Each structure stands twice: as C-alpha cells, then as structure tokens.
Amino acid sequence: MSTAEIQPSTAATDVPELVVGFDLDMTLIDSRPGIKAVWDLLAAESGAAIDTELVVSRLGPPLTWEMANWFPAEQVDAMVTRYREHYPAHAITGSLPLPGVAESLAAIRALHGRTVVVSAKYEPSVRLHLDHLGFDVDEPVGDLHGADKGIALREHKATVYVGDHTADIDGAHAAGAVAVSVATGPFTADELRAYGADVVLNDLTEFPAWLNGYVLEQRLEALMTRLASYPSMVVAFSGGADSAFLLAAAARAIGPANVVAATAVSPSLPVSELEPAARFADSVGVRHVTPHTHEMDREGYQANAGDRCYFCKAELVETLQPLADEFGITTIATGTNADDAIAGFRPGIRAAFERGAITPLRDARLTKAQIRETSRSWGLETSDKPAAACLSSRIAYGIRITPNLLARVDRAEQAVRAHLTPYGVRNVRVRDLGESASIEVDAELLGKVDSAALVELVRAEGFTAAALDPRGFRSGSMNERLAEPDKYR
C-alpha cells in the first residue's frame, strides 16, 4: 500500500510551507579566495591593473558591473566569458562554507522546510559551489540581482530571504519576504539595519535559533486562530504529549468549558495511561470522558495486516461521533502533528480524515519538537513524556491480535520498565514476534543494563524466548519488518 493511499493528500494547512532563500557569496560561502584567484589570472592575461583585493571586498553586484570598472565597454563581454572559463578550475575549491551554514540548513529541514539559493552569480557556477560543498539545497537560481531576486523568491514562495548585501534586502522586500541580513559581507550590522533589514544577525550561527523562534511563533498563532474559530470541540485524548498539548491549546483558545477530552478505553490502551490522562484533563479544567472502543470486533484490526491502524482510528472516530452529538459538538480533533503527516506509513490518518476529524497541529505545521518546546513553556507535565503508541503496535504484522496478547505485552513492558526505573529509562517496547519477543530500550542504556535479567522478566510473562535489540528503541520499528519481511524471518 503506497503512502498516497494511506494518507490524506488534500488536507489544507493553516500556514504556508516554510521556504527559506539564501544569497550565496559571503552569506553561505566565503568565495573571496577563489574569486581573487580568477581575477588575478585575468589581470595576468590581459595586463590590466586590477586591484583584486578591492574587487573581493565588494562582492554582490553582477559580474558585468565589476568588470566595467577595469575594462573598456567593448571588452566587458569577452572578459566575462574568459572569467567564467577560468572559474570552475580556480574558484570552486578555494571557497569555504561560512560558520553556521550546515546548522542553518539542518534547522530548515527539521521544520520540514525547503531552501532556494538566489544569487547574482552565473547559475552554473552557483551549482558547482553547492555540489562541491554538498549543501542540502532544493533549488539553485543565478543571474538575479537586487529587487530582481524577488522574481525567483516569489516563484518558489519563499517567506524568508537571507543575505549580506543591501541588494538582498531589496530582493526580499520585492517578494514580500522577511529580509534577514548577516553582517558577513561588505556592510556592517548598523548599515544593514539602517537600510531596512527586518532582522540583522552577526552571522549564520545565530540563524537557527532565530528561525526556530520565528517559525514557532507563526505556527502557534495559526493554531490558536484555528482553534478559536470553533465554538466547541472533542479532543481524542490518548494522554500523550501531542493530544495533551492540543487539549491545553483548545482550552486556552475557546475556554475549558467548551472542550471535552475523550480517552478511548480498550485492551490496546496500556493500563498505566488512564489515570495520568484523567489527571491531566482535570489540570486544564476540561471534562474527561472514557468511552469504550471495540476495535477488537473489527476483522481488519484483528487480522493485523499493514493497515491495522486504519480500523483502529475508524473505530475511535465513529465512537466519538455520537458522544460529540450528545454534547452538541460538531468538531472532533486528533493530535496528529506535522511529523506524523510525513512519516510514511500512517493509515490511521486517512481513516480519521475520511470521517471528518480535524488535525489542528498538523495543519499549523507544528512538529513534535515544537510541541514539546511549547509544552515546557506552558508548564505541561507531558512535555517530555515518551511516545506511547497503542499496545497493538507491538504485535508483529500478520499475528492475529487478541486481548491476551495485548495483556501479555503490557505486563512485560511494565516489568521491564520497573526494573529499569533506577536507570532513568524513558522508552520501553516489547515487540511480540510470535512466541518470541524483541526488547527495545533507550539506546544509551544498552551498555548499562543486564540483558539476561530483562530477558527473564519478559519470558516470565509467557514468551518462550526474548532478546534485547542491539539497535535500541525505534518508534515504528515494526514497519521495518513490513517493508523487508524476508530480512526478519
């Protein structure tokens, strides 16, 4: 089953996709040594008295502008051609990334954003630089300067543009993007600020923190605006970090009296989750209900094929609908976040989508990390709560699910967790592979724990064999077996 088949592809989002544009020279790379080498060659070949130190002190404008400072107008085109002939061999390897580039690009990826480089440089040269340094950039664009950069920025829907030159500020503003300036080029921070930069940073090492704060603010604003548009809401509340945050946000946006937290009770819910869920709902002042779901009555759920989660989520939403009707509430929301929406194998998302449930966290593009960060700032006790998928996720695909199997996994996990509590364990999974079990704990504990003791604890709950997974805990590791079944036989 393909990703397209199991996920809604048409669900609207409340904020635009994050697209960040960058200038190249003196923003991402220090290209001065390589560019100076090429200009030195031109000076030697032509006999022109070129002050190459001056040339590299004012990078930014198009090459033809600089060439006109040293050659007669009738020679400029020919010298530009010669410059570009020398460039690949003499300018690429001499250029180095500026501090903070790798971290800045990684920060954009972590926020599910895209990057575009828009430079006045000859586009083939732009590509050579990016390829040589291995920069993770989605689209390189060259041959644009000043306000003309806005053409490419608008085309790629960039909302932020980062550069070192006043002309880059013109480009950002022409596109309606936030102009972020770094003082790593020919202008000081004060000069960039005075020219009209929206944000001025010393260099790119400061960019990830600024971006994270800026994007989180935008996404939270979108979330709260969205939630405030509903008069009332039922939140499918598992007790995990995502649905707890959604519950708290809804209570803030429309008032706790207008929010109902619904925690589904079934054999697939770990027994230890119910009391904390009730306590959390009470802490934010919302009504907590515990309807019983009967996913075990659905053949597709019991069969435990790759689409098992579809039947579970279908049962959940169909159970909550009459409950919502009883309260006169028309909106059911789940805690699906932006990471879930791109994680690949999520048939449950499609089931909820088809039944009209909304996903405010996903639609605001909030990631798991952002949810945890905001939960901490709000003082929510769930901010660092480990992921806790339903017990059925521990049963290998193809093994028919029964209440007894779920109870066995639950007991085994509780025993392992109790044994590892002195170690500060966060994540524990006992994966039911049939008669044997795979034990997953936090990777950093693997060299500290007695694996034989863990195996005995798990076997005592009814497994004939067990082994500690040397790779440690991995969310969704059963999907590895689904993708490569022969590898795990």
UniProtKB/TrEMBL annotation:
InterPro entries: HAD-like_sf, HAD_sf, LarE, Ni-pincer_cofactor_biosynth, PGP-like_dom2, Rossmann-like_a/b/a_fold. GO terms for molecular function: sulfurtransferase activity. PANTHER family: EXSB FAMILY PROTEIN, NAD_GMP SYNTHASE DOMAIN-CONTAINING PROTEIN. NCBIfam families: ATP-dependent sacrificial sulfur transferase LarE. This is NAD/GMP synthase domain-containing protein. It comes from Kribbella amoyensis.
